[in-house]
């Protein structure tokens, strides 16, 4: 028995570098193969996976429930629904990323409020789409690309093996990516000044001290100041975008609406305004928000938050 175990271990060590080298190619092929399956089936499988992770991972479960409670929701009632929707988000990615042509998911999106985008364009201004981690947020940029060029800020995945998959998923007409650094910010500004569109996920914690602590569901969250700077320097208007998932794989409803008030000149107050606007979107369908994302962490380079609220804030 010991000899057999040693042989298997040696085989694993011998083949593991090859497996790791080919893993991005294999993963890309798997995603392309999965993209031909029905959207409803993939979402159902994803929901089951989400519930399994919720049941097995104590850290995931605890954070999801704590964030729901922080926002005033009953975790007992909503936690499993949120975990299932998080799984659906993963399950639908092969279709959202790789299905093209007449069967592409953009053809199963009901759009509400496109007139607000048209009004901004009629003024000759750039459009700054702000999309929280709500529903199928990936589809928002794809829809915007149907109406004109859009540049989205892209933060490469931490695992380098996933980079080819992430890049391949964003290769489409009218959709460009900008790195999350100074060069990327300049690229976003150029796009806005040219009257094009830019997309950001504003509830993603920034790094390198490039944010402020602002209220998010009653607790300080480190929040990017980039949207306010882009509006001021790029001659742009904010459009809030949220793409909610419809039942049984029927598609999505993309709602577009102007920002409810002018942004304050003070970065901290402007960040709070944006967070509160995102809260209003999330409260329309709280079960579709990614509550397990560590929104209240303290990223590297950030100053300490104004108050500790019991949860570990270190990145």
Automatic annotation (TrEMBL):
- Please indicate if the UniProt record lists Transmembrane as a keyword: yes
Q: Where in the cell is it found?
A: Cell inner membrane
One term of GO molecular function = acyltransferase activity
In the UniProt record, does the keyword Cell membrane occur? Answer: yes
Transmembrane segments annotated in the record for this chain: 30-56
**GO cellular component assignments:** plasma membrane
Please give the biological process terms from Gene Ontology that the record holds: glycolipid biosynthetic process
Keywords attached to this entry:
Acyltransferase, Cell inner membrane, Cell membrane, Membrane, Transferase, Transmembrane, Transmembrane helix
Against InterPro entries, the record matches this protein to: LipA_acyltrans (IPR004960)
PANTHER family according to UniProt: LIPID A BIOSYNTHESIS LAUROYL ACYLTRANSFERASE (PTHR30606), PHOSPHATIDYLINOSITOL MANNOSIDE ACYLTRANSFERASE (PTHR30606:SF10)
Name it. Answer: Lauroyl/myristoyl acyltransferase
Q: Which organism is it from?
A: Thiomonas bhubaneswarensis
């Amino acid at each position: 028995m010991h000899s057999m175990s040693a042989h298997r271990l040696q085989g694993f060590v011998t083949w593991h570098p090859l497996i790791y080298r080919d893993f991005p190619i294999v993963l890309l092929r798997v995603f392309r193969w999965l993209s031909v399956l029905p959207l409803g089936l993939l979402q159902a499988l994803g929901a089951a996976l989400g519930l399994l992770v919720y049941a097995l991972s104590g850290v995931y479960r605890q954070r999801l429930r704590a964030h729901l409670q922080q926002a005033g929701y009953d975790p007992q009632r909503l936690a499993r629904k949120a975990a299932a929707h998080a799984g659906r988000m993963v399950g639908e990615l092969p279709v959202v990323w790789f299905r093209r042509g007449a069967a592409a998911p953009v053809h199963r999106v009901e759009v509400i409020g496109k007139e607000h985008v048209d009004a901004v364009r009629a003024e000759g201004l750039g459009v700054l789409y702000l999309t929280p981690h709500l529903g199928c947020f990936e589809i928002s940029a794809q829809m915007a690309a149907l109406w004109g060029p859009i540049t989205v800020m892209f933060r490469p995945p931490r695992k380098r093996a996933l980079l080819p998959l992430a890049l391949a998923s964003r290769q489409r007409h009218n959709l460009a990516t900008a790195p999350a650094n100074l060069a990327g910010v300049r690229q976003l500004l150029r796009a806005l000044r040219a009257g094009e569109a830019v997309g950001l996920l504003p509830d993603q914690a920034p790094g390198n001290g490039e944010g402020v602590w602002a209220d998010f569901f009653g607790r300080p969250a480190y929040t990017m100041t980039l949207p306010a700077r882009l509006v001021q320097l790029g001659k742009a208007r904010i459009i809030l975008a949220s793409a909610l998932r419809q039942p049984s794989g029927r598609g999505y409803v993309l709602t577009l609406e102007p920002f409810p008030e002018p942004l304050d000149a003070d970065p901290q107050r402007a960040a709070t305004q944006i967070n509160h606007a995102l809260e209003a979107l999330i409260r329309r369908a709280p079960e579709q928000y990614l509550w397990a994302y560590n929104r209240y962490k303290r990223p590297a380079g950030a100053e300490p938050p104004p108050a500790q609220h019991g949860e570990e804030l270190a990145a």
